[in-house]
Amino acid sequence: MKNIFIIIILTFCPLASLFAQDKYEIFRKEMFLIEKQENEYRKVIWGENDFSQDYKDSVYKKHQVLVKEKVEFAKNTIRENRDDERFLKVLDIYVRNFLSLDEFEAELKMFSFQVQKTEACQRYFEFIKYARINTPGKQCIDFEMKGHDGKTIKFSDVYKKHKLVLIDFWASWCGACRATMPSIKKMYEVYHEKGVEVVSVSLDDNKEAWEKAYKEENIPWIDGSNLLGWKDPVTLWYAIRGIPHKVLVDQHGIIIDSGFYQLGSLEQKIDEYLHSHKN
Question: What residue stretches are annotated with the Thioredoxin domain (predicted)?
Answer without folding.
Answer: 134-275
